[in-house]
Amino acid sequence: MIVPCLNPVSPIVIGGVDTHKELHVAAVVNNSDVVLDTQKFSTTRSGYRAMLKWMRSFGDLKRIGVECTGSYGAGLMRFLDNAGIEVLEVTSFR
User: How many beta carbons lie within 10 A of that of residue 17, not counting itself?
Assistant: First the structure.
């Protein structure tokens, strides 16, 4: 009897981005809010592509929280929106 190979289920992950003028700092967390990794990416289209590919390498990317999408995060927000990613705008309170 041949047993079919079942594909493992990809873990669900969520991204977060702290935006800056020249570099964005990104993190990926799992469903238990454990930080899986952090990384810096340039604020260019190639940097945005690399960030998205990196985040997706951890599992099924459900959404990304981006700080201040009206300023340094505006370009990233447009890129992710065009890529069909759910983006949540995160505001910081000081």
Answer: 26
Within 13 Å of residue 27, how many CA atoms lie on the same side as its CB?
A: 12
User: pLDDT in tens for each of the 94 residues of the chain?
Assistant: 665 556 567 899 999 999 999 999 999 999 999 999 999 999 999 999 999 999 999 999 999 999 976 789 999 999 999 999 999 998 865 5
State the residue range of the domain holding 53: 12-26+42-90
In a domain, 66, yes or no: yes
In a domain, 53, yes or no: yes
- Give the pTM: 0.85
